[in-house]
Amino acid sequence: MNRPARWFALVVTFTLLAATPALAAPLTFPALHIDGFPRGGPPNITAATWILYDETSDAVLASFLPDQERPMASITKIMTALLAVERRDLGEIVTVSVKAANTGEREIELYAGEELPLRALVKAAMIHSANDAATAIAEHVGGSVEGFVTMMNARAQELAMTETSFANPHGLDAPDHYSSARDMLDLSVEAMKHEEFRDIVRSELLVFPDAPDGSERRGTTTNLMLGDYQGASGIKTGFTSTALLTFVSTAIRDGRRLYAVVLGSEGRRAHFADAGALLDYGFGQLGIHGTLSTTNPYVSLQERVSPGPIYAETNLETFVHLAGQGLMTSPPSPSTPLPDIEPLPITVVDRRPEDAPDGVLSAINYWWTLVVGQ
């Protein structure tokens, strides 16, 4: 073998020896991303705390500081209306007190001594956010504002609203008057179970009985998402200088009801923008996807008349909720530990050729002999 060939063989030999550790390393593959599944997380919004909930699947889709205590402003009236619906007949007649008529801030202009149906007052409180109506409700249902506040806090305990304390029925700033996004969600879901409550909070216009002096009293909803956001169906807004903008919103699309609760939104109509962005995120990126199963036997989980198998033909059989595919921001449920498994025996295989060299110099001489042949 001539000199250039020998030098080439030597270079190849050293290259192979140097590359051996790298070749021995395990192969790795990049994780594949399946097209069509969403990327990214929840939208950036101004609210200090918030929560997004899918009632249909009973899942919190996303949240940020959902248990932080904050002033709640007029979404307080959700509890006020709920107690009225639960404890009294809304057809009852309420006599408005001087205290109720003089509550202050946003009002429906009640007159002391006038008599009104409880239903009209609940509508004024929830649609027009009338503070005087909320006080009149409290006095009628609880006997006094103080007695009604006791009822509010007792009901909050029943609903496990552990981060909530009520001090009044209308939501004006007061010491010991606060809640959390999660607690307000739980309260709202409970209130929306009542058909009459649902009908009230989706109304855009309030037609109130005329005042004793004959003047008309009309009100419009404070929830500007009604009629403007697809599927919007409630429920209550709020604002004070301390609480900032608060909002419990809900919408239904394709059979799914989502709730978005935002507390402490900042900026003109920011609570509507924040809630809308969260609902868009839930409907658009955290949807339920189905697959078709045909001619496969299917056993129903519910008792049927015929015990035989069902054969699905073009029916939606399986569902995947994208919030369950690593996209939920709340901590997952604790996993169940698996039992210890006895490891399999390990077999050591020596892949060196027979009479393979041990040292580096011996290895060089070994490969030189194989390549050069001398």
State the CATH architecture of the largest domain: 3-Layer(aba) Sandwich
For the largest sheet, list the strands in their spatial order: 2-1-9-8-7
Q: How large is the radius of gyration?
A: 34 Å
Which spans have pLDDT < 50 for at least 5 consecutive residues?
16-39, 311-320, 324-333
CATH superfamily of the largest domain: DD-peptidase/beta-lactamase superfamily
In whole angstroms, the N-to-C terminal distance is 9 Å
Oligomer: single chain
The pLDDT mean sits at 81
Tell me the domain tally: 2
Count of helical segments? Answer: 10
Under CATH, the topology of the largest domain is which?
Answer: Beta-lactamase
Report on the architecture of this protein.
With 374 residues, this protein is α+β, with helices and mostly antiparallel strands. The protein folds into two domains: 49-286, 3-Layer(aba) Sandwich (Beta-lactamase); 291-324, no CATH class. Helix content is 32%, strand content 19%. The chain contains ten helices and 13 strands. The strands form five sheets. A five-stranded antiparallel β-sheet has the order 2-1-9-8-7, with helices on both faces. The chain has a two-stranded antiparallel ribbon with strand order 3-4. A two-stranded antiparallel ribbon has the order 5-6. The radius of gyration is 34 Å and the shape is elongated.
